[in-house]
Design a protein that fits this description.
By secondary structure, the chain is an alpha/beta fold. Strands 2-3-1-4-5-6-9-10-11 form a nine-stranded mixed beta sheet, sandwiched between helices. A six-stranded mixed beta sheet has the order 12-13-17-14-15-16, with helices on both faces. Strand 12 and strand 13 form a beta hairpin. The N terminus and C terminus are likely disordered.
């Protein structure tokens, strides 16, 4: 197949990989010695010395039979990647996985560098804008496309720009070699995958694509939320019509203008039972299984159902049987900072918890609030930390598009912190929160202690909830680790693992 102009880094000159490796490994030791995670620096050093390192490591891995899976999405890619890695490991495979979430070129290079010659399969979380930069070099066996939501507009631009880049990414890969697992409920992704299928057919190639999605009207929303991002057909521009919508613009959609409609999901959650913050029960139809899989997911939220179904679609396509998928998913734990519940010791044995909830765009914030409100938990002790670092996105105007009012109504007051705390405080005031209830605390650590004190004083079980943007989440997670309440999120090495007692 014809490839676009982008050809990756394979032709750039540099020192041999054998010489660059030890220097990059030394950089990691220095990074760890200074108390940092070391997820990006070794990769940066490696790629600066050997720009073709990714292509070389991928080529050598393929020669040994190692497969590569890239997972990308705006929301949920860390969780979906972790679920998929868990399922493959449960099936007895040595899995290489960037567990720290370092998903740029440097982080992916670090992960592959650490793995060395080991690993049956690389499962790599990949930033949305990074996918087009690494896919031509890595030549993945599978790409999993989860969703496209408006996020970090200062970095990514509008959604159509990312969709175009993803389309070009698929065009740059041999259609006969890559399997595309994708969310059929996202009209942007469905359209670009359809282009991929049509392009392959024109070249006499049958593209392998696996659509997944939800198919339970009982957990659908009434109409589209006002923050829904994809309301128009990408092909003809006509407004889309939805029979059901589940998360943002993800749903059972059709275009009355050109007739394009949601592909029928091959892997689908046909029954979803949300059980507050405790768990979610699913019934998932999977090809080749004699009956629907009955699953218990110990992670709340409808958006995590999408993560689970996407991971199941990828794992089953890679040959993992339902008998392995079900217990592996039942053992899944939230990725760090994503509904992560951390026990907190209090004075006189009054223990509580703080739950970290990463928020970074309107749809993600809406779904976190929807999950909290639907579960009926006491949100009296709630913190919101808004930063505008590069990793967060400089543009914080997204908070005005989110439906935050239901949280304000139930919380009554909120501890507000972060570099852009004043802006969220203004959003809270316009959203109906009494200005006296906007509890400003500029220092993030002190804000965390303040919300924990509020939990001990005003709630029955001492539960606090911290809604935090990415850099605030990393800082709060570091504070928690320093207190000894939880291990550092990068404490487990992102190399390879194999489950005992597997069938392989």
């Amino acid at each position: 197949m014809a490839s676009p102009a982008h050809t990756g880094t394979a032709r750039r000159l540099g020192v041999p990989l054998a010489l660059a490796r030890p220097v990059a490994a030394a950089a990691r030791l220095v990074s760890r010695a200074t108390g940092r995670e070391g997820g990006a620096l070794p990769g940066k050093v490696l790629l600066s010395l050997a720009p073709s390192a990714l292509a070389t490591m991928a080529r050598r891995g393929r020669a040994r039979g190692r497969r590569i899976v890239l997972v990308s999405a705006t929301n949920g890619k860390t969780t979906m990647t972790a679920m998929l890695a868990e399922m493959l490991a449960a099936d007895g495979l040595d899995v290489v996985h960037n567990v720290t979430g370092a998903n740029l070129r440097s982080g992916i290079a670090t992960t592959m560098l650490q793995a060395g010659r080991r690993g049956d399969v690389c499962v790599l979380e990949t930033d949305e804008a990074t996918l087009p930069l690494v896919a031509p070099d890595l030549r993945p066996d599978m790409i999993v496309l989860g969703n496209l939501f408006r996020d970090q507009l200062d970095r990514f631009g509008e959604l159509e720009v990312l969709a175009d880049r993803w389309r070009d990414t698929l065009a740059a890969l041999p259609g006969e070699d890559v399997t595309v697992v994708y969310n059929a409920d996202d009209p942007l992704i469905a359209e670009l995958v359809e282009e991929h299928v049509t392009r392959c057919a024109a070249d006499g190639i049958v593209a392998t694509v696996v659509p997944f999605g939800l198919d339970d009207p009982d957990v659908a929303q009434e109409g589209l939320p006002h923050a829904a991002d994809s309301r128009f057909c990408r092909r003809c521009g006509h407004p889309l019509e939805y029979a059901h919508s589940w998360v943002g613009h993800l749903g059972a959609w059709t275009c009355p203008g050109c007739g394009m409609t949601r592909p029928e999901p091959v892997v689908a959650a046909t029954s979803v039972e949300l059980d507050g913050l405790a768990a979610t029960r699913l019934q998932v139809e999977v090809p080749g299984e004699p009956e629907a899989l009955q699953l218990r997911l110990p992670i709340p939220g409808l958006y995590n159902v999408y993560n689970a179904v996407g991971a199941i679609a990828a794992a089953s396509t890679l040959g993992v049987p339902g008998a392995v998928l079900v217990p592996a998913l039942a053992a899944a734990a939230p990725a760090f900072g994503r509904f992560e519940r951390i026990p907190v010791p209090g004075p006189n044995g009054t223990n509580g918890t703080i739950t970290l909830l990463l928020v970074k765009n309107p749809t993600g914030l809406n779904e976190v609030i929807r999950t909290l409100v639907a579960s009926g938990v006491d949100v009296t002790a709630t913190l919101f930390a808004l930063n505008d670092g590069i990793a967060d996105g400089r543009d914080t105007s997204w908070i005005w598009d989110a439906d935050v009012e239901p949280l304000f109504e139930r919380a009554g007051a909120m501890v507000v912190t972060g570099e852009r705390a004043a802006e969220f405080g203004l959003r809270a005031a316009y959203g109906g929160l009494d200005p006296e209830g906007v509890l400003y605390e500029p220092d993030l650590e002190q804000a965390m202690y303040r919300v924990l004190e509020r939990a001990r004083e005003f709630t029955e079980h001492g539960h606090a909830y911290a809604l935090v943007t990415y850099t605030a989440m990393l800082k709060m997670r570091a504070i928690i680790a320093a207190q000894g309440w939880a291990r550092s999120y990068w404490a487990n090495e992102p190399t390879t693992r194999r489950r005992r007692g597997s069938r392989r």
